[in-house]
Amino acid sequence: MKILGISAHYHDSAAALLIDGLPVAAVQEERMSRRKNDAAFPLAAIEWCLESAGLEPEDLDAVVFYERPMLKFERILTTALRAFPVGRQAFVHAMRNSLGEKIWVRGIIQAQLGVSRRKILFTEHHQSHAAAAFLTAPTREAAILTTDGVGEWATLTVGRGRRTLGGPTAVDLIREVRWPHSLGMLYSTFTAFLGFAVNEGEYKVMGLAAYGTPRFADAVRKVIRRTADGAFSLDLGYFEFHTTVAQSYSRAFIDLFGPPRAAWDPIDLATDEGRRFADIAASVQLVLEEILVDMARALQRETGLSDLCLGGGVALNGVANARILAESGFERLFVPPAPGDAGCALGAALYADRVHFGNPDQDFPDHPFWGPAVEAGELTRIASEDGLAVETLDDAALIARTAQDLAAGRIVGWMDGAGELGPRALGARSILAAPHSAETRDRLNRDIKYREEFRPFAPVVPAELAERYFELPPGGVRLARFMSGVFPVRPAWRARLAAVTHVDGTARVQALEREMAPRLHDLIMAYGKLTGVPVLLNTSFNLAGEPIVSRVAEGYSTFRRSGIDVLAAGRERVVKRAFAKVSIEEEIA
Ligand SMILES: [Fe+2]
């Protein structure tokens, strides 16, 4: 059975193709269109998925959209009407957007792909999140918690899933919290207040939080209150996202927290103002963690299960995830590499396959590499047109040379195999560097990523050695598989891992099992032999404001436009001219 899953029209569109229950291709539209967080109907992603499997649209048995457009439209309309006339602007915006595209999804799919109407199915948004979390995890029975900004009406669901290998699958969502009460919207509102871009700057809030003390926690608890049933509700007097598209927080919010930060104002932590912003970030982060830990703990007691699968965009909060693992009573915590809406394309397809069609359950391949692959010979072709010499080496030689580059302090663009689904580089499209000095971090921020200094870089370490360098609780190595948890760096190693240790002594570590990305694992071990520390700095291969590179041409262009010194794509390797001379001298020596 051939099933195509699609997510679109909010942010981060994606397509995923399942054949006989297993994924064969999945990619975000942004990786194809090169527009970051592209929310358009993912035609290029769909075309690539079909092409990579040699299929035509008419070969598909089903096309599954990741949410129910009419329910979503009902929510937008009801919200706007409730707020009318205050919400007149939101109403017009919603009508224009929704009538323009969103509710006619069936028609769009039919027109774009030419598939018959009866093959087009819809899942609920949080069913897609739940399926993306539970059906991709190596567990047979687990509690499920999904949290995001909003889908149709739900903003948080709890439930449980049960699967039998070769047999039936059940994904039951038991309860939900409904719009406008939303943890995702709470965090996004603070993201906007702190002057960062919503749906993208949430990482920055989490990074900034480490510099602050949560002295505004009681104020945050005023805007989000706990309810008797263990959930929460927003005090809507502090918010405006439900009535207007122009601003997400109200006058009362500003009275409580002080003036917001303008996006162009730098955050200077040496000033009272800078510290206030860091303290506000720390406060919303703390309250978010408290609520999630409480809800997870209640779910553990209710279900008595030992595994929890987390889905939805809020599951990208690695600090909260680490606390859930440590404090909720669950023994194992699974977060997929793409818990946000991009992963819903895969979730929707899986939900249709296992639940709607009742196909037998199968083990899901435990990795995120479903995108376009590095093509052999491509780097040689592009770089030689550009006048740069490319070497093609066998694996051992390429890894040895790259380890030497890294040990010499060079920054390496690393492209290997198929690209990652989800926002994190997990070994296929990474920028790698030595993790030791803060200078490397500053150089990366200055010459390549152009980021604020308070955003930490992440380390990657072989899973079997992770505990030597990082304080991982039971279940921590699993949570670190896809970089989903933030854990303390062991104090003895912090100075030697300065480029990847955050100001509070933590790191968003990736614990890499060799079977997931063998060449990267071998590279880290080779680097460890040279330097004594088998850890690398691993950050996504892209410039600020651009999506992660997908094809070799994009990797090469990024290499040329930035301070990356060496580019390795598969078995091919090219160096900047300035370093070519040094390399030859090293060889002679
Ligand atoms: Fe979502």
What do these coordinates show?
The protein has 589 residues and is of the alpha/beta class. Helix content is 39%, strand content 19%. It has 21 helices and 24 strands. The strands form six sheets. An eight-stranded mixed β-sheet has the order 14-24-23-15-17-22-18-21, sandwiched between helices. The termini are far apart. Fe (ii) ion is lined by residues 125, 129, 148, 151, 312-313, 341.
**Strand fraction band?**
15-25%
What is the CA-based Rg, rounded?
Answer: 24 Å
Major sheet strand order: 14-24-23-15-17-22-18-21
Uncertain segments of ≥5 residues (pLDDT<50)?
none
The pLDDT mean sits at: 93
Separation of the first and last Cα atoms = 59 Å
Gross morphology: globular
Bound molecules: fe (ii) ion
Question: What keyword list fits this structure?
Answer:
24 strands; alpha/beta; 8-stranded mixed β-sheet; binds fe (ii) ion; 589 residues; 5-stranded mixed β-sheet
